[in-house]
Amino acid sequence: MIVVQTVKEMQELSKKYKIAGKSIGYVATMGFLHEGHLELVKRAREKDHIVVMSIFVNPTQFGPNEDFDQYPRDFERDRQLAQEHGVDILFYPSVSEMYPFEQTTEIHVVRRTDVLCGKSRPGHFEGVATVLFKLFHIVMPDNVYFGLKDAQQVAVIDGFLKDYFFPINLIPCPTVREEDGLAKSSRNVNLTAEERKEAPILYQSLREAKKMSEDGEYDADKILRFIYNKIEQSISGKIDYVEILSYPDLKPIKRLNGQVIIAIAVRYSKVRLIDNIIWTIGGGK
């Protein structure tokens, strides 16, 4: 595995592989890797000739109340995991390498951000889009792999790639879960023992809501009430939101039809958990 720290070297390597007819699969991360990231690497390894992973804690996607400096970092651990799981190139740039001077342009994300987590994180997706615009031009991937645990991010990236005609395939990958259904996350270690016991209720409620629609209930308000009641009666955490939307457009709906998402966020004492389920009414996942 090669560790690359400069934009110039990464671009030169990508050009070399392109000329040789090699496909590049890309996994963008902020490090502190967990099984969800490594599953994305596995998918890329199966499909592409060359697998590139980036580790970059991007300052432009952190809000004023979100501590960029406290984000967990352990490069040596991440480097070892990346190498063990078949990453060919680990792109590890500094902030000054990615933002060498004051930006002369800005990217504004105008759709798919005023719901779910985007409501409480103004400017977050502008930061995501900005860094991905840079990274996609640096890595020049054929395929990019993102986990559906953060389904709103996947929807924003989907629109972004289409808006600007990027010659890149977006490959959304299913959420990686614990045996009891809890979505895997590095944040789960911050749950108390009691909270960890309760947490699988989130996914259980999503699955039961999906079953309601499969049994013929298409009224979004009735399904939302069911989820609220189940969660409020079963956990000590506080519901941040429960929303039913079209996907990937992320528009409110009254009746379930076509591809939809039900997404949940719950705040516990030291951690905020998110989860979702996406399926197509009448079939699909």
Automatic annotation (TrEMBL):
Catalytic activity reported: (R)-pantoate + beta-alanine + ATP = (R)-pantothenate + AMP + diphosphate + H(+)
Pathway noted in the entry: Cofactor biosynthesis; (R)-pantothenate biosynthesis; (R)-pantothenate from (R)-pantoate and beta-alanine: step 1/1
A GO CC term assigned to this protein in UniProt: cytosol
Enzyme class: ligase
Superkingdom of origin: Bacteria
Subcellular location: Cytoplasm
SUPFAM superfamilies: Nucleotidylyl transferase (SSF52374)
UniProt cross-references to InterPro entries, sorted A to Z: Pantoate_ligase, Pantoate_ligase_C, Rossmann-like_a/b/a_fold
Binding-site residues, ATP: 30-37, 147-150, 176, 184-187
Record-level GO BP terms: pantothenate biosynthetic process
Record-level Gene Ontology MF annotations: ATP binding; pantoate-beta-alanine ligase activity
Record-listed beta-alanine binding positions: 61
Described function: Catalyzes the condensation of pantoate with beta-alanine in an ATP-dependent reaction via a pantoyl-adenylate intermediate.
Subunit record text: Homodimer.
HAMAP family membership: PanC
Protein name listed in UniProt: Pantothenate synthetase
